Amino acid sequence: MVQGRLNVGVIGCGYWGPNLVRNLHENRLCNRIIACDLVPAKLQKIAVRYPAVELTTDPEELIGRLDVDAVMIATPLSTHFDLALRTLQSGKHVFVEKPFASSSVQALRLIEEADKRKLTLMVGHTFQFSPPVIKIKEILDSGELGRIFYISSTRVNLGLHQKDVSVIWDLAPHDLSMILYWLEEAPTEVLAAGKDFVQKGIPDVAFLFLRFASGAIAHVQVSCLAPSKLRRTTIVGDAKMLVYDDTEHLEQVKIFDKGVHFKDPDTFGEYQLSYRTGDIISPKIESSEPLQAEVADFLGSILHRRKPLSDGEAGLRVVKVLEAAERSLLNSGHLEVLPAAGRS
Ligand SMILES: NC(=O)c1ccc[n+]([C@@H]2O[C@H](COP(=O)([O-])OP(=O)(O)OC[C@H]3O[C@@H](n4cnc5c(N)ncnc54)[C@H](O)[C@@H]3O)[C@@H](O)[C@H]2O)c1
Questions:
Q1: Which of 155, 216, 308, 336 might form a disulfide with 324, Cβ 3.0–4.6 angstroms?
Q2: ω into residue 99 within 30 of 0, thus cis?
Q3: What are the tens digits of pLDDT across the range 261-309?
Q4: What confidence category does residue 344 fall into, taking pLDDT thresholds of 50, 70 and 90?
Q5: How far is the CA of 101 from the centre of ligand 1 (A)?
Q6: Contact, 121 vs 130, CB < 8 A?
Q7: Does ligand 1 have an atom closer than 6 angstroms to the CB of 18?
Q8: Distance, CA 46 to ligand 1 centroid (Å)?
Q9: Which residue blocks in the chain are alpha helix, DSSP H?
Q10: Does residue 231 line the site of ligand 1, with CB under 6 A?
Q11: What's the CA-to-centroid distance between 253 and ligand 1, angstroms?
Protein backbone atom coordinates (compact mmCIF):
# COMPACT_ATOMS: atom_id res chain seq x y z
CA MET A 1 0.00 0.00 0.00
CA VAL A 2 1.30 3.49 -0.86
CA GLN A 3 -0.32 6.50 0.88
CA GLY A 4 -3.74 4.88 1.16
CA ARG A 5 -3.60 3.43 -2.36
CA LEU A 6 -3.51 -0.28 -3.05
CA ASN A 7 -1.39 -2.50 -5.29
CA VAL A 8 -3.82 -4.93 -6.92
CA GLY A 9 -3.27 -8.09 -8.94
CA VAL A 10 -5.72 -9.41 -11.55
CA ILE A 11 -5.52 -13.15 -12.28
CA GLY A 12 -7.21 -14.16 -15.54
CA CYS A 13 -7.17 -11.72 -18.48
CA GLY A 14 -9.47 -13.50 -20.92
CA TYR A 15 -12.89 -12.01 -21.75
CA TRP A 16 -13.77 -10.43 -18.38
CA GLY A 17 -10.44 -9.75 -16.61
CA PRO A 18 -9.48 -6.80 -18.88
CA ASN A 19 -12.65 -5.01 -17.67
CA LEU A 20 -11.36 -5.33 -14.09
CA VAL A 21 -7.95 -3.97 -15.20
CA ARG A 22 -9.65 -1.01 -16.93
CA ASN A 23 -11.70 -0.12 -13.85
CA LEU A 24 -8.71 -0.48 -11.52
CA HIS A 25 -6.74 1.76 -13.90
CA GLU A 26 -9.43 4.43 -13.59
CA ASN A 27 -9.75 4.18 -9.79
CA ARG A 28 -7.68 6.61 -7.73
CA LEU A 29 -7.55 4.15 -4.79
CA CYS A 30 -5.44 1.83 -6.95
CA ASN A 31 -1.71 2.51 -7.02
CA ARG A 32 -0.30 -0.31 -9.16
CA ILE A 33 -1.83 -3.13 -11.21
CA ILE A 34 -0.18 -6.48 -11.81
CA ALA A 35 -1.96 -8.56 -14.47
CA CYS A 36 -1.53 -12.33 -14.66
CA ASP A 37 -2.59 -14.93 -17.22
CA LEU A 38 -1.14 -18.29 -18.16
CA VAL A 39 -1.32 -17.26 -21.83
CA PRO A 40 1.22 -14.56 -22.82
CA ALA A 41 -0.93 -13.38 -25.76
CA LYS A 42 -3.67 -12.30 -23.32
CA LEU A 43 -1.15 -10.20 -21.42
CA GLN A 44 0.12 -8.61 -24.62
CA LYS A 45 -3.32 -7.11 -25.20
CA ILE A 46 -3.17 -5.57 -21.71
CA ALA A 47 0.36 -4.25 -22.39
CA VAL A 48 -0.80 -2.45 -25.55
CA ARG A 49 -3.63 -0.61 -23.75
CA TYR A 50 -2.03 -0.11 -20.35
CA PRO A 51 1.78 0.13 -20.64
CA ALA A 52 2.18 0.85 -16.91
CA VAL A 53 0.57 -2.46 -15.86
CA GLU A 54 3.09 -5.09 -14.72
CA LEU A 55 2.65 -8.53 -16.30
CA THR A 56 3.29 -12.10 -15.19
CA THR A 57 2.35 -15.57 -16.46
CA ASP A 58 2.89 -17.06 -12.99
CA PRO A 59 -0.04 -16.77 -10.52
CA GLU A 60 2.16 -18.15 -7.70
CA GLU A 61 4.65 -15.35 -8.20
CA LEU A 62 1.84 -12.76 -8.00
CA ILE A 63 0.19 -14.33 -4.95
CA GLY A 64 3.55 -14.53 -3.15
CA ARG A 65 4.58 -10.90 -3.74
CA LEU A 66 4.89 -8.86 -0.56
CA ASP A 67 4.06 -5.57 -2.29
CA VAL A 68 0.62 -6.77 -3.49
CA ASP A 69 -2.33 -5.92 -1.18
CA ALA A 70 -5.23 -7.54 -3.00
CA VAL A 71 -6.03 -9.88 -5.88
CA MET A 72 -9.04 -9.99 -8.20
CA ILE A 73 -9.70 -13.43 -9.73
CA ALA A 74 -11.34 -13.70 -13.17
CA THR A 75 -10.39 -17.23 -14.19
CA PRO A 76 -12.71 -20.20 -14.95
CA LEU A 77 -14.81 -21.48 -12.02
CA SER A 78 -12.76 -24.67 -11.50
CA THR A 79 -9.73 -22.55 -10.48
CA HIS A 80 -11.51 -20.04 -8.17
CA PHE A 81 -11.17 -21.99 -4.91
CA ASP A 82 -7.45 -22.83 -5.08
CA LEU A 83 -6.42 -19.37 -6.27
CA ALA A 84 -8.64 -17.57 -3.70
CA LEU A 85 -7.53 -19.78 -0.81
CA ARG A 86 -3.85 -19.34 -1.59
CA THR A 87 -4.34 -15.58 -1.94
CA LEU A 88 -6.00 -15.37 1.49
CA GLN A 89 -3.35 -17.64 3.03
CA SER A 90 -0.68 -15.25 1.78
CA GLY A 91 -2.42 -12.44 3.69
CA LYS A 92 -4.08 -10.66 0.75
CA HIS A 93 -7.64 -9.43 0.27
CA VAL A 94 -9.48 -11.22 -2.50
CA PHE A 95 -12.25 -10.60 -5.01
CA VAL A 96 -13.62 -13.68 -6.79
CA GLU A 97 -15.72 -13.44 -9.92
CA LYS A 98 -19.12 -15.12 -9.98
CA PRO A 99 -19.84 -17.95 -9.48
CA PHE A 100 -17.94 -17.69 -6.18
CA ALA A 101 -16.97 -21.37 -5.84
CA SER A 102 -17.87 -24.82 -7.18
CA SER A 103 -19.57 -25.90 -3.92
CA SER A 104 -20.89 -24.48 -0.66
CA VAL A 105 -18.15 -26.41 1.18
CA GLN A 106 -15.52 -24.46 -0.77
CA ALA A 107 -17.41 -21.18 -0.29
CA LEU A 108 -17.57 -21.75 3.50
CA ARG A 109 -13.87 -22.58 3.64
CA LEU A 110 -13.00 -19.27 1.92
CA ILE A 111 -15.30 -17.32 4.26
CA GLU A 112 -13.66 -18.93 7.30
CA GLU A 113 -10.15 -18.21 6.02
CA ALA A 114 -10.99 -14.55 5.33
CA ASP A 115 -12.70 -14.16 8.74
CA LYS A 116 -9.76 -15.76 10.57
CA ARG A 117 -7.29 -13.44 8.87
CA LYS A 118 -9.59 -10.35 8.96
CA LEU A 119 -9.27 -9.97 5.20
CA THR A 120 -11.85 -8.65 2.74
CA LEU A 121 -13.57 -11.33 0.67
CA MET A 122 -15.81 -10.10 -2.11
CA VAL A 123 -17.76 -11.91 -4.83
CA GLY A 124 -18.37 -10.45 -8.31
CA HIS A 125 -22.15 -10.05 -8.23
CA THR A 126 -21.94 -7.18 -10.70
CA PHE A 127 -25.71 -6.67 -10.98
CA GLN A 128 -25.91 -5.64 -7.32
CA PHE A 129 -24.02 -2.51 -8.45
CA SER A 130 -26.22 -1.82 -11.45
CA PRO A 131 -28.25 1.43 -11.12
CA PRO A 132 -31.60 -0.12 -12.26
CA VAL A 133 -31.15 -3.05 -9.85
CA ILE A 134 -30.43 -0.62 -6.99
CA LYS A 135 -33.45 1.50 -7.99
CA ILE A 136 -35.67 -1.62 -7.91
CA LYS A 137 -34.36 -2.40 -4.42
CA GLU A 138 -35.40 1.11 -3.32
CA ILE A 139 -38.84 0.65 -4.90
CA LEU A 140 -39.36 -2.73 -3.18
CA ASP A 141 -38.13 -1.39 0.18
CA SER A 142 -40.54 1.57 -0.10
CA GLY A 143 -43.44 -0.91 -0.26
CA GLU A 144 -44.76 0.62 -3.51
CA LEU A 145 -45.35 -2.82 -5.07
CA GLY A 146 -46.93 -4.17 -1.89
CA ARG A 147 -46.42 -7.80 -0.91
CA ILE A 148 -44.36 -9.59 -3.58
CA PHE A 149 -46.24 -12.44 -5.24
CA TYR A 150 -43.60 -13.54 -7.73
CA ILE A 151 -40.48 -12.67 -9.77
CA SER A 152 -39.86 -14.05 -13.24
CA SER A 153 -36.48 -13.54 -14.90
CA THR A 154 -35.30 -14.40 -18.41
CA ARG A 155 -31.63 -14.32 -19.46
CA VAL A 156 -31.25 -15.94 -22.89
CA ASN A 157 -29.25 -15.44 -26.08
CA LEU A 158 -27.30 -17.43 -28.66
CA GLY A 159 -23.90 -18.29 -27.03
CA LEU A 160 -21.50 -18.30 -25.36
CA HIS A 161 -21.41 -22.02 -24.58
CA GLN A 162 -18.91 -22.59 -21.74
CA LYS A 163 -16.48 -25.52 -21.95
CA ASP A 164 -16.67 -26.49 -18.28
CA VAL A 165 -19.83 -25.12 -16.63
CA SER A 166 -23.53 -25.46 -17.29
CA VAL A 167 -25.72 -22.48 -18.09
CA ILE A 168 -27.01 -22.69 -14.49
CA TRP A 169 -23.56 -21.90 -13.04
CA ASP A 170 -22.67 -19.44 -15.80
CA LEU A 171 -25.78 -17.26 -16.17
CA ALA A 172 -28.13 -17.92 -13.23
CA PRO A 173 -25.78 -16.29 -10.63
CA HIS A 174 -26.77 -12.93 -12.15
CA ASP A 175 -30.53 -13.44 -11.63
CA LEU A 176 -30.15 -15.24 -8.31
CA SER A 177 -27.90 -12.55 -6.85
CA MET A 178 -30.48 -9.92 -7.84
CA ILE A 179 -33.48 -11.85 -6.53
CA LEU A 180 -31.84 -12.69 -3.18
CA TYR A 181 -30.67 -9.07 -2.82
CA TRP A 182 -34.13 -7.69 -3.58
CA LEU A 183 -36.09 -10.09 -1.38
CA GLU A 184 -33.44 -10.29 1.38
CA GLU A 185 -34.20 -13.97 1.84
CA ALA A 186 -32.90 -17.27 0.53
CA PRO A 187 -35.30 -19.79 -1.02
CA THR A 188 -36.47 -22.77 0.99
CA GLU A 189 -37.25 -24.90 -2.07
CA VAL A 190 -35.52 -25.16 -5.45
CA LEU A 191 -36.49 -27.15 -8.52
CA ALA A 192 -34.82 -27.15 -11.95
CA ALA A 193 -35.27 -28.74 -15.33
CA GLY A 194 -33.01 -28.37 -18.33
CA LYS A 195 -31.08 -30.12 -21.06
CA ASP A 196 -27.66 -30.43 -22.68
CA PHE A 197 -28.58 -29.91 -26.32
CA VAL A 198 -25.21 -28.94 -27.82
CA GLN A 199 -22.43 -30.38 -25.60
CA LYS A 200 -23.22 -33.65 -23.83
CA GLY A 201 -23.12 -33.30 -20.03
CA ILE A 202 -23.19 -29.46 -20.03
CA PRO A 203 -26.81 -28.18 -19.90
CA ASP A 204 -27.30 -25.11 -22.09
CA VAL A 205 -31.00 -24.49 -21.31
CA ALA A 206 -32.48 -24.46 -17.80
CA PHE A 207 -35.64 -23.41 -15.99
CA LEU A 208 -35.33 -22.81 -12.24
CA PHE A 209 -38.19 -22.51 -9.77
CA LEU A 210 -37.71 -21.07 -6.25
CA ARG A 211 -40.09 -20.87 -3.29
CA PHE A 212 -39.51 -18.48 -0.36
CA ALA A 213 -40.72 -18.61 3.23
CA SER A 214 -42.39 -15.19 2.76
CA GLY A 215 -44.77 -16.82 0.26
CA ALA A 216 -43.09 -15.33 -2.81
CA ILE A 217 -42.08 -17.60 -5.70
CA ALA A 218 -39.57 -17.01 -8.50
CA HIS A 219 -38.78 -18.40 -11.90
CA VAL A 220 -35.46 -18.03 -13.74
CA GLN A 221 -34.97 -19.06 -17.36
CA VAL A 222 -31.36 -19.20 -18.59
CA SER A 223 -30.22 -20.33 -22.02
CA CYS A 224 -27.38 -19.91 -24.47
CA LEU A 225 -29.56 -21.43 -27.18
CA ALA A 226 -32.10 -18.75 -28.05
CA PRO A 227 -32.73 -16.68 -31.20
CA SER A 228 -32.48 -13.26 -29.56
CA LYS A 229 -31.01 -11.65 -26.48
CA LEU A 230 -33.52 -11.17 -23.67
CA ARG A 231 -32.67 -9.77 -20.22
CA ARG A 232 -36.07 -9.20 -18.70
CA THR A 233 -37.39 -9.46 -15.16
CA THR A 234 -41.00 -9.04 -14.06
CA ILE A 235 -41.91 -8.44 -10.42
CA VAL A 236 -45.57 -8.73 -9.44
CA GLY A 237 -46.79 -7.41 -6.11
CA ASP A 238 -50.27 -7.16 -4.64
CA ALA A 239 -50.25 -3.36 -5.17
CA LYS A 240 -48.25 -2.76 -8.40
CA MET A 241 -46.10 -4.57 -10.95
CA LEU A 242 -42.67 -3.81 -12.39
CA VAL A 243 -40.71 -4.74 -15.51
CA TYR A 244 -36.91 -4.41 -15.75
CA ASP A 245 -35.43 -4.77 -19.23
CA ASP A 246 -31.64 -4.61 -19.17
CA THR A 247 -31.41 -4.47 -22.98
CA GLU A 248 -33.18 -1.06 -23.04
CA HIS A 249 -31.04 2.08 -23.05
CA LEU A 250 -33.81 4.30 -21.74
CA GLU A 251 -36.66 3.32 -19.45
CA GLN A 252 -35.02 0.14 -18.17
CA VAL A 253 -37.48 0.02 -15.29
CA LYS A 254 -41.24 0.53 -15.65
CA ILE A 255 -43.74 0.48 -12.78
CA PHE A 256 -47.27 -0.52 -13.78
CA ASP A 257 -50.13 0.61 -11.58
CA LYS A 258 -51.99 -2.59 -12.36
CA GLY A 259 -53.59 -5.15 -10.12
CA VAL A 260 -56.62 -7.18 -9.30
CA HIS A 261 -59.06 -6.80 -6.44
CA PHE A 262 -60.91 -9.86 -5.24
CA LYS A 263 -63.71 -9.44 -2.71
CA ASP A 264 -64.24 -12.71 -0.82
CA PRO A 265 -67.92 -13.49 -1.50
CA ASP A 266 -70.41 -14.54 1.19
CA THR A 267 -72.71 -15.87 -1.51
CA PHE A 268 -72.18 -16.79 -5.17
CA GLY A 269 -74.13 -13.70 -6.20
CA GLU A 270 -71.58 -11.45 -4.46
CA TYR A 271 -68.62 -12.84 -6.47
CA GLN A 272 -66.58 -9.79 -7.55
CA LEU A 273 -63.23 -9.53 -9.26
CA SER A 274 -62.04 -6.16 -10.55
CA TYR A 275 -58.90 -5.38 -12.52
CA ARG A 276 -57.13 -2.03 -12.21
CA THR A 277 -55.00 -0.50 -14.98
CA GLY A 278 -53.46 2.87 -14.18
CA ASP A 279 -50.31 4.84 -14.99
CA ILE A 280 -47.05 3.40 -16.21
CA ILE A 281 -44.12 5.25 -14.63
CA SER A 282 -40.47 4.96 -15.61
CA PRO A 283 -38.28 6.32 -12.79
CA LYS A 284 -35.15 8.35 -13.57
CA ILE A 285 -32.07 6.18 -13.23
CA GLU A 286 -28.51 7.49 -13.23
CA SER A 287 -26.31 5.83 -15.82
CA SER A 288 -23.00 4.52 -14.53
CA GLU A 289 -20.94 1.40 -15.09
CA PRO A 290 -21.76 -1.25 -12.45
CA LEU A 291 -18.21 -2.61 -12.58
CA GLN A 292 -16.81 0.80 -11.67
CA ALA A 293 -18.92 0.82 -8.49
CA GLU A 294 -18.04 -2.82 -7.79
CA VAL A 295 -14.27 -2.20 -8.02
CA ALA A 296 -14.70 0.96 -5.89
CA ASP A 297 -16.57 -1.08 -3.25
CA PHE A 298 -13.80 -3.70 -3.16
CA LEU A 299 -11.01 -1.14 -2.71
CA GLY A 300 -13.09 1.00 -0.31
CA SER A 301 -13.98 -2.04 1.82
CA ILE A 302 -10.30 -2.91 2.21
CA LEU A 303 -9.19 0.63 3.03
CA HIS A 304 -12.11 1.41 5.39
CA ARG A 305 -12.32 -2.11 6.89
CA ARG A 306 -16.03 -2.50 6.08
CA LYS A 307 -17.99 -5.36 4.54
CA PRO A 308 -18.45 -5.19 0.76
CA LEU A 309 -22.02 -5.23 -0.56
CA SER A 310 -21.53 -8.67 -2.17
CA ASP A 311 -19.46 -10.39 0.50
CA GLY A 312 -18.63 -14.08 0.93
CA GLU A 313 -22.00 -14.75 2.62
CA ALA A 314 -23.85 -13.34 -0.41
CA GLY A 315 -21.70 -15.58 -2.61
CA LEU A 316 -22.44 -18.61 -0.43
CA ARG A 317 -26.22 -18.01 -0.58
CA VAL A 318 -26.10 -18.03 -4.40
CA VAL A 319 -23.83 -21.10 -4.53
CA LYS A 320 -26.31 -23.01 -2.31
CA VAL A 321 -29.11 -22.31 -4.79
CA LEU A 322 -26.91 -23.25 -7.77
CA GLU A 323 -25.98 -26.56 -6.10
CA ALA A 324 -29.61 -27.32 -5.32
CA ALA A 325 -30.67 -26.44 -8.88
CA GLU A 326 -27.99 -28.68 -10.34
CA ARG A 327 -29.00 -31.57 -8.03
CA SER A 328 -32.62 -31.11 -9.04
CA LEU A 329 -31.79 -30.99 -12.75
CA LEU A 330 -29.76 -34.19 -12.50
CA ASN A 331 -32.67 -35.82 -10.62
CA SER A 332 -35.35 -35.11 -13.24
CA GLY A 333 -36.63 -31.99 -11.51
CA HIS A 334 -36.73 -33.37 -7.95
CA LEU A 335 -37.80 -30.70 -5.42
CA GLU A 336 -34.78 -29.74 -3.30
CA VAL A 337 -35.59 -28.48 0.19
CA LEU A 338 -32.90 -26.15 1.53
CA PRO A 339 -32.00 -25.92 5.22
CA ALA A 340 -32.92 -22.64 6.92
CA ALA A 341 -30.52 -19.75 6.19
CA GLY A 342 -27.21 -19.88 8.01
CA ARG A 343 -23.88 -21.47 7.49
CA SER A 344 -24.86 -25.08 8.00
N1 LIG B 1 -19.43 -10.35 -13.47
C2 LIG B 1 -19.74 -10.54 -14.72
O3 LIG B 1 -20.66 -9.93 -15.27
C4 LIG B 1 -18.96 -11.56 -15.51
C5 LIG B 1 -19.01 -11.56 -16.92
C6 LIG B 1 -18.26 -12.51 -17.60
C7 LIG B 1 -17.51 -13.44 -16.91
N8 LIG B 1 -17.49 -13.41 -15.56
C9 LIG B 1 -16.73 -14.41 -14.80
O10 LIG B 1 -15.33 -14.17 -14.97
C11 LIG B 1 -14.63 -15.41 -14.92
C12 LIG B 1 -13.79 -15.54 -16.19
O13 LIG B 1 -14.67 -15.61 -17.29
P14 LIG B 1 -14.16 -15.27 -18.78
O15 LIG B 1 -15.38 -15.27 -19.62
O16 LIG B 1 -13.28 -14.06 -18.77
O17 LIG B 1 -13.28 -16.57 -19.11
P18 LIG B 1 -12.12 -16.72 -20.18
O19 LIG B 1 -11.95 -18.16 -20.41
O20 LIG B 1 -12.36 -15.81 -21.35
O21 LIG B 1 -10.84 -16.14 -19.43
C22 LIG B 1 -10.22 -16.80 -18.36
C23 LIG B 1 -8.73 -16.51 -18.42
O24 LIG B 1 -8.12 -17.06 -17.26
C25 LIG B 1 -6.86 -17.60 -17.64
N26 LIG B 1 -6.47 -18.60 -16.65
C27 LIG B 1 -7.03 -19.81 -16.42
N28 LIG B 1 -6.46 -20.41 -15.34
C29 LIG B 1 -5.52 -19.54 -14.89
C30 LIG B 1 -4.61 -19.57 -13.80
N31 LIG B 1 -4.54 -20.61 -12.98
N32 LIG B 1 -3.78 -18.51 -13.62
C33 LIG B 1 -3.83 -17.45 -14.47
N34 LIG B 1 -4.68 -17.36 -15.51
C35 LIG B 1 -5.51 -18.40 -15.72
C36 LIG B 1 -7.08 -18.18 -19.05
O37 LIG B 1 -5.86 -18.28 -19.76
C38 LIG B 1 -8.02 -17.13 -19.64
O39 LIG B 1 -7.33 -16.12 -20.34
C40 LIG B 1 -15.69 -16.51 -14.75
O41 LIG B 1 -15.82 -16.82 -13.39
C42 LIG B 1 -16.96 -15.84 -15.27
O43 LIG B 1 -18.13 -16.37 -14.72
C44 LIG B 1 -18.17 -12.50 -14.85
A1: 336
A2: yes
A3: 888 777 777 778 889 999 999 999 999 999 999 999 999 999 999 999 9
A4: very low
A5: 13
A6: no
A7: no
A8: 15
A9: 17-25, 40-49, 59-64, 77-89, 104-117, 131-142, 167-183, 290-303, 312-330
A10: no
A11: 30
